[in-house]
Amino acid sequence: xxxxxxxxxxxxxxxxxxxxxxxxxxxxxxxxxxxxxxxxxxxxxxxxxxxxxxxxxxxxxxxxxxxxxxxxxxxxxxxxxxxxxxxxxxxxxxxxxxxxxxxxxxxxxxxxxxxxxxxxxxxxxxxxxxxxxxxxxxxxxxxxxxxxxxxxxxxxxxxxxxxxxxxxxxxxxxxxxxxxxxxxxxxxxxxxxxxxxxxxxxxxxxxx
Length: 208
Known about the structure:
Blueprint: H1 5-15, E1 32-40, E2 50-59, E3 62-72, H2 81-87, H3 100-111, E4 116-118, H4 121-136, E5 144-146, H5 147-158, H6 168-175, H7 185-201
Parallel strand pairs: 1-4, 4-5
Antiparallel strand pairs: 1-2, 2-3
Helix pairs in contact: 5-7
Organism: Amphritea japonica ATCC BAA-1530
EC number: 2.7.7.7
Pfam families: RNase_T
């Protein structure tokens, strides 16, 4: 039985309200958002394994690049030639990577109960929750913000009708945001953060 995410989060909040992670389930009242990205061996959540995790905080109009997370994991057995062609991460690049338990602790501490931003953010959240739930009994509690939905809503508001191109490269070009270290977790997280700030505080973009 598949439990709807909202119901599951309510249950997790009740289960952990008196535990060591209770602070993660309190309503967030600040003005920060965390842009998150994971590089993985596959786009299939069930089969994929996480290679690296990148995150950066956004506070109002500012992308806080000094407050960032750049984690490399130990190389998994599923790291193959096909996946290396996409993210350019080899096993040799991960020899100094951390184990998953340490990575998850860093992620929970960095994100806290802040909203989580990303491009296809649900995939990144689901990948992390695949490891979080067996270890902690809960997933990421923060609200998820999908960048492509923010972009889509603004474009549709200005240009009624027609399809909106939601490809990462198109959004970047339309917003005049350079793609930083494409297909690296931290690079994509920072690029998405810059796009989000541009959408919220810059001139409304033209349709791409």
